[in-house]
What does this fold into?
Amino acid sequence: MLDETLLLACEASEAASIAAALPFGVRFLLRPEITPVQRAFLDLRGYLVFDRVAADAEVDTILAEVDRVEAELLREGKQKINGVPLWFGPDPDGHEYLYRMGFSSVYSPFLSSFVRDARFEPIRRLIGDDARIGDREKDGVVFNRYMNAANSLRPNLAWHTDALRDVFYNWRMPGPMLNVGLHFDRIRPEDGGLRVLPGTHTQSAWSTLFSKIHFVTQAPDPREVMVETWPGDLTVHDGRMWHKVDTSPKQGWASLRRSMYVPYVRDAVLEKSENSPTPMYLRLFDAIVRWKARRARGR
Ligand SMILES: O=C(O)CCC(=O)C(=O)O
Ligand SMILES: [Fe+2]
It folds into this structure.
């Protein structure tokens, strides 16, 4: 982890040259304020990784909460929360398993208060002094699980920019936006996991939309950087940057990777409810994931 003790008061121009010299895999400590070097690295590369922002006990509690909510949703036979489809598919033992859940904090008072914890305040202010936690807006707090197993609904997530979602939501080209993720597993480079294309957050609108096929292209890119994670890590990435999740070469439960994305929102308040329709981009996303799972089964 980078020791920034002597860099806390540096000028923006100095921070920019320090950031440019840091390795792509640099891990930062989340302090009460985002530091000049952290800001400069984010501006330059499009992402930041903070070392273990959640404690092991919190990681365990969140994972147990998700299991509890999953069981409740299965009991109730729920297919969607606030219009966002729940992605259920078989696990390696043949049981129904939840691969993606939007609005996960709606059923969990623990999650709802955890994402508002004071330690995340510098992240909120990084996004904007007026930013709020939109856990009842957009897709809410999204919990993801990925597994490499026969019949898995989701072994990976192909190249995409999160900005596309905003094009669908607002019908305009996205401006700067930051996405905040928590990571729950030890993922080494050889485990697949999150890959980003540093610097692509400043590309043209055309490249943001078309330089790869959203949610379909999975192939390695010579410029890609693997984001190694420890349980409890927090990542921030610019939504205009290309990124993907690669399949673990492990099989079954050993390949499980879990992440949770917390929406910070600055637009007008648009809370969703049980009657909210499924957004167009999610219908598309849903169709692509199911098509890929069917295709994989057919192989
Ligand atoms: O699981 C991850 O870390 C990435 C998830 C992601 O990129 C997304 O849901 O848009
Ligand atoms: Fe994404």
Summary: The mean pLDDT is 93. Residues 144, 157, 162, 181, 194, 243, 245, 259, 261 surround 2-oxoglutaric acid (ligand 1) (CB under 6 Å). The radius of gyration is 19 Å.
